[in-house]
Amino acid sequence: MNTSSSGNLIIYLSLLIAMCLSIAPWPNPLATLMPSWTLLAFMYWNIALPHKVSVGTGFITGLLFDTLIGSTLGQNALIFSIASFLSHKMYSRLRNYRVWQQAYFVLLFFLIMKLLSLWISRSTHYFEAGYSYWAQALVSAIIWPFVFSSLRLIRRRFRVQ
């Protein structure tokens, strides 16, 4: 089997599974604190294999995610594109950090993305952001080591390069 095609398949399959986790019916207390699984998986692939995942991939993934969750079309496309761009700019530094140090970057990054999302949401319709809206960024940073380890294991198991 061709390594590059199987590698792309694994990447897209992991993004699809992350999207399914994002729309899965969770109990209400858990749902409000649920991390952005799709963005976490997308950031991992940007840092791990920047030559396989591009800004265009982020835009298409964001559009698919917009249609899946019913948000303003283009909102997540912009966020995923910016995520891809920033991850590509910083991947060589981030790869040298320990996973818990990367989690600080993930926290800062998710806070910026939440602020951008809030700005877009408020410009299109009224949206009130409570503590749970911002807590998702913290939960995403806390869960980052688990996502990183799981996707790295998958990448090594299937020899995605």
Q: What is the straight-line distance between the termini?
A: 14 Å
Unreliable runs, pLDDT <50, ≥5 residues?
none
Number of helices: 7
Shape: globular
The radius of gyration computed from the alpha-carbon positions, rounded to a whole number of angstroms, is 15 Å
Instruction: Please report which band the strand proportion falls in: under 5%, 5-15%, 15-25%, 25-35%, 35-45% or over 45%.
Output: under 5%
Class by SSE composition = mainly alpha
Number of DSSP E strands:
0
Helix-strand sequence: HHHHHHH
Task: Give the domain tally.
Answer: 1
* Major sheet details: none
Overall pLDDT, averaged?
A: 91
Range of helix content: over 70%
Q: What features would you describe in this structure?
A:
With 161 residues, the chain is mostly helical. The chain is built from 7 helices and no strands. Helix 5 packs antiparallel against helix 6. The model has no long low-confidence stretch (mean pLDDT 91).
From the structure above, extract its key features:
7 helices, mainly alpha, 78% helix
What's this model, at a glance?
With 161 residues, the protein is mainly α. The protein is built from 7 helices and no strands. The mean pLDDT is 91.
